[in-house]
Structure formats: structure tokens, C-alpha cells
């Protein structure tokens, strides 16, 4: 997945620094969620004066441009969402096509949107080590939230995945653990929408899909470290981690131990 330009179904995130003075956003074909990420800044738009603080959110629908004046330099996190992602999610939720749109809003406070934006930025700064599945999960969560979170009910909503569905998905994950798994492909394996798979999988396993995959990769890496003489860098790639330091971070988080400690303990 390219992170330089939005694809038709993935979010894109970048940090935007402006020096102060006249600031503008050109119209683009994607929806944009701008989160103020720096020190407070005063400004004005037409006759309206404002003060942005960390976490203030602007939502600019696709094709929207904006211009304003800021009294000092500022930093924002800008998340771009292709309209196709919002349309697909609305369809999966059983919403009418006209619901797959956003209204322009300024200085919104929304902890859920903010949390997803910071998570995307952390992933960007780390070099996107968690791959497509994690980005897909965040994108779907953001789209569902923006659409109001009203899901269409599918079969057995309170019981999670059926046993055959869960077996198909987990078997697919095990077989492709060293690859770049995607939420769309796992949903296809389960025969569900992506938004519904996220909910039902967590009900069945107690973990979000991407977190379950991290645990399975850590478990595979632990086995390889204990039972083989493979270098840690080889173990990381064989287990589906993007690099050795990514494996070490996940192993410390899940097991409370480094790869070296796991190997010595084995």
C-alpha cells in the first residue's frame, strides 16, 4: 500500500506545517479530517475569529477548499479518506446512498476521531510496520464513526462468528501469517462485510482482528526462536513482521520479554 497518495480504499495521513499568515487548502477528491496537533493558535476566517487548540477537528468534504488567516505557525495532522471507502462502508451498514457524505464542520471535538488520527500518525512515524490490516481496521472504524455507527444487523449479531466462519478466518490467517493480510480479504473468507467482520471477530475471540494477528505472529516467532537457530531478523520476516525491531516491540508488549530473553529462556 502506498502512503504517499491515497488509494481507492485506504486512509492517508500526513503532517502539515504552516508558517502563519494566509493559509489555504485546495480542493481535492478526498474527504479530509484535519486535527490541530501543535501549540494553540489564533486566527480568523472572514469575520469569524477563532483559537485552535490541540485536538480541534475540521472536516472538509471531498471537493471542498478553504482559506483563513493564522497569527502564528501551526501544525496539523491531515487524514485523507477516499469517498469510495465511505460509500462502501455505508453500503455494508445498510444505509441509503445519500448517507455516504460528510458535512463541513469546524472546531469539532470528538475523542474517537482524535484517537484514530493519533494512531494513524503513530503508525506513519513508525514506518507503517503493521501493514494493510491495521490501516484497514482504522479506516473502517473511522468510516463507521463518521456515518453515525448505526450498523445493519446480520445473522447472529450477539454470538459472533459461527464456528465454520471462525475456522475459515483463523486458518487463512495461519496460512498467510507471513504476508500482508487485508481486512477485505478476511471478510471475503468469512462471507461478511468488513465492518461486520471487525465486530463479530472480536466477539468471538476477545481481540480485534489486527491484534489477534499480532498475537499469532508473536507466538510463531517465539516458537522459531526457541526451536531453531534462525537469526532474529529471519524469524521476524518468517513470522510476518516488517522488521526485527517491529517484532521486538510486539514481543515486549505481548510477552513482556525481548526476543533474546525468549531464546535464552527456551
UniProtKB/TrEMBL annotation:
<protein>
    <submittedName>
        <fullName>AraC family transcriptional regulator</fullName>
    </submittedName>
</protein>
<dbReference type="GO" id="GO:0003700">
    <property type="term" value="F:DNA-binding transcription factor activity"/>
</dbReference>
<dbReference type="Pfam" id="PF12833">
    <property type="entry name" value="HTH_18"/>
</dbReference>
<keyword id="KW-0238">DNA-binding</keyword>
<dbReference type="InterPro" id="IPR009057">
    <property type="entry name" value="Homeodomain-like_sf"/>
</dbReference>
<keyword id="KW-0805">Transcription regulation</keyword>
<dbReference type="InterPro" id="IPR050204">
    <property type="entry name" value="AraC_XylS_family_regulators"/>
</dbReference>
<keyword id="KW-0804">Transcription</keyword>
<dbReference type="GO" id="GO:0043565">
    <property type="term" value="F:sequence-specific DNA binding"/>
</dbReference>
<dbReference type="InterPro" id="IPR018060">
    <property type="entry name" value="HTH_AraC"/>
</dbReference>
<feature type="domain" description="HTH araC/xylS-type">
    <location>
        <begin position="167"/>
        <end position="265"/>
    </location>
</feature>
Amino acid at each position: 500500500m502506498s502512503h504517499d497518495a491515497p488509494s481507492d480504499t485506504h486512509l492517508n495521513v500526513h503532517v502539515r506545517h504552516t508558517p502563519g499568515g494566509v493559509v489555504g487548502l485546495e480542493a481535492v477528491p478526498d474527504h479530509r479530517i484535519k486535527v490541530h496537533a501543535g501549540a494553540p493558535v489564533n486566527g480568523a476566517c472572514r469575520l469569524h475569529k477563532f483559537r485552535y487548540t490541540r485536538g480541534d477537528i475540521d472536516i472538509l468534504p471531498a471537493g471542498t477548499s478553504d482559506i483563513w488567516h493564522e497569527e502564528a505557525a501551526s501544525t496539523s495532522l491531515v487524514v485523507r479518506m477516499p469517498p469510495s471507502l465511505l460509500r462502501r462502508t455505508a453500503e455494508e451498514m445498510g444505509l441509503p446512498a445519500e448517507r455516504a457524505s460528510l458535512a463541513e464542520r469546524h472546531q469539532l471535538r470528538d475523542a474517537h476521531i482524535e484517537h484514530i488520527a493519533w494512531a494513524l500518525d503513530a503508525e506513519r512515524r513508525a514506518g507503517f510496520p503493521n501493514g494493510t490490516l491495521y490501516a484497514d481496521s482504522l479506516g473502517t472504524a473511522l468510516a463507521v464513526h463518521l456515518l453515525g455507527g448505526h450498523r445493519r444487523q446480520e445473522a447472529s449479531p450477539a454470538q459472533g462468528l459461527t464456528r465454520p466462519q471462525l475456522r475459515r478466518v483463523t486458518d487463512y490467517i495461519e496460512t498467510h501469517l507471513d504476508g500482508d493480510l487485508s481486512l477485505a480479504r478476511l471478510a471475503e473468507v468469512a462471507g461478511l462485510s468488513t465492518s461486520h467482520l471487525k465486530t463479530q471477530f472480536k466477539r468471538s475471540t476477545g481481540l480485534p482482528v489486527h491484534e489477534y494477528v499480532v498475537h499469532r505472529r508473536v507466538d510463531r516467532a517465539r516458537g522459531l526462536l526457541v526451536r531453531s537457530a534462525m537469526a532474529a531478523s529471519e524469524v521476524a520476516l518468517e513470522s510476518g513482521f516488517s522488521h526485527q525491531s517491529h517484532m521486538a516491540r510486539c514481543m515486549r508488549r505481548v510477552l513482556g520479554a525481548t526476543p533474546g530473553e525468549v531464546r535464552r529462556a527456551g
